UniProtKB/TrEMBL annotation:
Official protein name in the record: Squalene cyclase C-terminal domain-containing protein
Signal peptide span: 1-41
Coiled-coil region(s): none
InterPro entries: Terpenoid_cyclase/PrenylTrfase (IPR008930)
Length: 428
């Protein structure tokens, strides 16, 4: 299972990996074989954190992940990240294009013992593609991701292990960010696409009513998993971490998987309908629990899962369900600030992205300025976008040279592949 950080509180990133691993562990018990996904680090983290890194917790298991989300969230709201922060992320890449969770000595080349990981690789792709100026790094990372695609069309965190819904979802987001059409990225053996793999984790009409439409983490027939469902519902529409704002006035009704008509019974191969069914499951769970999801962490089943609730908001917004997303968003505005303060940059980034997806101002989020709070967890950002444009300046280091546009809750970073705001434009 995924390693746990040794200090409290956990960063959101580590908690995210642990949630997935807890579900996968049950699958391992059934199979007696396939290993649960893990967060891999190339080497032990140093006593002194490197310059440019966001957060103060041990980065050994989530350094690249939290850095990627932090930079992506800043870019999404028109903040130009510090060059040192971008340079740190780019410097974590191995020569073959892959990333691991964290490399304490990035100057040392990766070797056969370096445990490459699809999750931080896909997260870094989304961040570097959005920032611009890193085309070679993005291309190399995507090429590596394609090289470790499983025969079923999906991915595991650890190359060579069985595919899972979360890893497949984050790679779909990376492919879209890099300008690829996920459906055209097929396995060498079998010709399966990422969507073919993703839909194998979907629970359909053969399941009990309360689980229909949900996604499992890994095994068909395993329990519904809200974390996997939120990730898969977004990825099934060809989208990643950044979702164009649906807005609170987007009132498309959520259509749960009812299985009362032929449409639902025959929808097993339709990613868009699968996303809709996943959204229906999420709404049912949110309504049941008071507009938040519950933690899947062992021993904490009654504890609100703030991060997963933010993921659900993004998934609902991705499906055009702004009105449905507004309810859990309101819960986040009242309850998420303390969690984010304890958890660090990835948590603030998630809330920024949830606010962005709903057209909400992240600088006034339940009384918290999420952007300022995120900025405070790392090196001071470069000059604000508007000032930089007026000065006509290019970036210093980090390879950022694109113009920036300020638009709270509206701006989308240059070069990102999530400009597709409707299902017809999802690239499926």
């Amino acid at each position: 299972m995924a390693p746990m950080a040794h200090q409290a509180p956990l960063t959101h990133s580590v908690a995210f990996l642990a949630r997935r691993a807890a579900t996968a562990l049950a699958a391992v018990a059934v199979l007696g074989a396939a290993a649960a996904p893990a967060a891999y680090a190339d080497s032990a983290s140093p006593g002194k954190l490197p310059d440019g890194l966001y957060g103060t917790n041990d980065p050994q298991f989530d350094g690249v992940w939290r850095q990627s989300l932090a930079l992506l969230a800043q870019d999404t709201v028109g903040i130009r990240p510090a060059p040192s922060a971008v340079t740190w992320l780019a410097g974590q890449q191995c020569a073959d294009g892959a990333f691991t969770a964290y490399r304490a000595e990035p100057g040392t080349p990766c070797d056969a013992k370096t445990r490459r990981d699809t999750n931080p690789t896909a997260a870094a792709v989304q961040a570097l593609a959005a920032l611009g100026g890193h085309g070679d790094a993005v291309h190399k990372a995507v090429t590596w991701l394609k090289s470790v695609q499983n025969d079923d069309g999906g991915w595991s965190s650890a190359p060579g292990s069985a595919s899972d819904a979360n890893s497949t979802s984050v790679v779909i987001g990376a492919l879209t960010a890099a300008g690829e059409k996920p459906r055209s990225v097929t396995s060498k053996k079998g010709g399966k696409s990422p969507y073919d793999a993703l839909l194998t984790f979907r629970l359909g009409c053969e399941e009990k009513a309360e689980g229909r439409g949900a996604f499992t983490f890994q095994l068909k027939g395993a329990a519904p998993n809200a974390d996997a469902t939120a990730a898969a519902a977004t990825a099934a529409l060809g989208k990643g971490f950044v979702v164009a704002p649906a807005g609170k006035n987007a009132t498309a009704p959520v259509k749960p998987l009812s299985c009362e008509g032929d449409e639902d019974k025959k929808a097993g191969g339709d990613p868009v309908r699968a996303a809709e069914g996943g959204d229906g499951y999420l709404v049912a769970q949110l309504d049941k629990n008071g507009q938040h999801l519950l933690s899947a962490m062992p021993g904490a089943k009654k504890q609100p899962d703030v991060g997963n609730t933010a993921d659900a908001v993004v998934a609902l917004a991705a499906g055009g369900h702004g009105a449905a997303a507004a309810k859990p968003l309101a819960w986040l505005e009242k309850n998420a600030a303390g969690w984010a303060k304890q958890s660090g940059p990835a948590a603030y980034a998630q809330l920024v992205l949830a606010a962005h997806a709903t057209g909400t101002d992240p600088r006034s989020f339940g009384g918290t300025d999420l952007v300022a709070a995120l900025n405070a967890t790392g090196p001071a950002p470069a000059a604000a976008a508007k000032k930089d444009a007026e000065d006509g300046g290019d970036s210093e280091g980090g390879g950022i040279g694109l113009p920036w546009i300020i638009g709270i809750g509206l701006a989308i970073g240059a070069g990102i592949g999530f400009l597709l705001s409707s299902r017809k434009k999802s690239g499926l």
